[in-house]
DNA sequence: CCTTGTAGGCGTACGGCGTACTCCTACGAG
DNA sequence: CTCGTAGGAGTACGCCGTACGCCTACAAGG
């Protein structure tokens, strides 16, 4: 204890949280592709290599950003029917991630080994269990939900119907793909949140339909 | 015509297809993160900058790879009930992409403006239309399917239950997340193809349940 | 108060990347 | 045979992540 103090000639001047906040500031200001060890160090007013006193590598820096964003994930247990609870849980993730859209790619690759996400997953599995899902059927139900969420997030980020790709598809001529063209046009009128809820409703209807009594 | 020939002092020695094949060879041999203009040029036996005679930039090179992989997407119209047809169409994409798992990230970001994917989407939309889906409900149904597919592909690629992340999760202790631990263990026994079909079945059950008569 | 060991901070440098620019040259057309 | 064109290649620039080594501010022990 006294030894630990003795072995600290100069106290640390930065915390992981402060570093993550700086990285998030860079991302929110100039986009994910401007994130680099150099830009974050500059944001903190320190030399590039000084960052490595606090962070193993870029990988860990990204993890810190994801952790920070997911701090806003509401951990309270929702109530209502099991389907209502799954909906609430799903929308909480969407809300947390949606607050910083540019970090979606980081979220997708770093979401594992984040304790908030794990607690969230445990809550989802608990809800499914109470609904009567078990064993393989529960695994498939859970993983299907995750797949939908992951796909919905990346679609909102860089999908063909929202984001830069939308413009291309929404203006394509009726031939040779009339349904695709019409779909792209109609899709522009649907708010992302509504579409997300719609897909979730379909999925939950499917889960309910395949749920044994 | 004669002018076009006149204006070609040296004939092109490479085709887009040959370039894409070289890039795919690099990816399949050493992984996606070894793909670079330099490695592809080396694979072709030409100088790095010579590649730019055939390709606008790295972006287009990646597009060519995706195009090549998706050439194996079966274009035939499937038959059976509408749910059976959607299943066949979904598994065709999975088969085409699954033949080169390392290109999944490229597929996710370059799938738009690929004509095979567009034709595939038109076929899916046609099937949904015949099943009675129209307007906004058809858009949501379509997009939900896409989201599930995209999510399933990336999950299979770098998900927590398959790939390197699996090991971490599958060996986590029962506390404090017992359901998560059990799910990870069970998930390892389920073949990816079976899980994919299971999720698809859930989704289609949901679509059928929400489909108006 | 002064010495001393430790750890924070930083500058340099290396090997990678994508690609702009410029030069050389092989070749088909006349 | 000449000539214009376009293919091919080398060099170089500004990025990136990060290994390495130096300098120095500081808290503890005397």
Which blocks of ≥5 consecutive residues of chain A have pLDDT under 50?
Answer: 160-165
Q: Oligomer, anyone? A: homodimer
Largest sheet of chain A: none
Distance between the termini of chain A: 59 Å
Radius of gyration of chain A: 21 Å
Q: In which range does the helix fraction of chain A lie?
A: 55-70%
Q: What is the number of helical segments of chain A per DSSP (H or I, 4+ residues)?
A: 11
Greatest contact between two chains: A-B, 60 and 60 residues
How many DSSP-defined strands of chain A? 0
Portion of residues in beta strands of chain A equals under 5%
Structural class of chain A: mainly alpha
Determine the mean pLDDT of chain A: 91
| Net shape of chain A | flat
H/E order of the elements of chain A? HHHHHHHHHHH
Q: Care to describe what's here?
A:
Two copies of one chain form a homodimer. Chain A has eleven helices and no strands. The model of chain A is unreliable at 160-165 (pLDDT under 50). With 213 residues, chain A is an all-alpha fold. Chain A is flat, with a radius of gyration of 21 Å. The termini of chain A are far apart. Chain A has helices at residues 2-6, 16-30, 37-44, 58-70, 82-98, 104-110, 115-130, 135-158, 164-170, 178-187, 192-209. Chains A and B meet through helix 7, helix 8, helix 9, helix 10 and helix 11 of A and helix 7, helix 8, helix 9, helix 10 and helix 11 of B. The first copy, chain A, binds a DNA duplex (30 and 30 nucleotides) through helix 1.
């Amino acid at each position: 204890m006294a030894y630990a103090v003795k072995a600290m000639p100069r106290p640390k001047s930065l915390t992981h949280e402060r570093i993550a906040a700086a990285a998030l500031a860079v991302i929110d200001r100039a986009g994910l592709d401007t994130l680099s060890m150099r830009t974050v160090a500059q944001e903190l007013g320190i030399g590039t290599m000084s960052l490595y006193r606090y962070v193993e590598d870029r990988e860990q820096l990204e993890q810190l950003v994801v952790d920070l964003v997911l701090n806003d994930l509401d951990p309270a247990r929702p109530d209502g029917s099991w389907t209502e609870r799954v909906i609430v849980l799903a929308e909480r993730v969407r809300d947390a991630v949606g607050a910083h859209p540019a970090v979606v790619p980081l979220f997708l690759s770093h979401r594992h080994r984040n304790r908030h996400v794990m607690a969230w997953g445990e809550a989802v599995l608990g809800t499914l269990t109470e609904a009567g899902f078990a064993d393989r059927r529960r695994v498939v139900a859970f993983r299907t939900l995750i797949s939908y969420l992951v796909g919905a997030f990346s679609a909102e980020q860089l999908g063909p119907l929202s984001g830069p790709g939308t413009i291309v598809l929404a203006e394509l001529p009726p031939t040779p793909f009339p349904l695709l063209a019409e779909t792209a046009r109609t899709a522009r009128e649907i708010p992302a949140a509504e579409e997300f809820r719609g897909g979730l409703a379909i999925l939950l209807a499917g889960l309910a339909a395949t749920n044994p009594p």
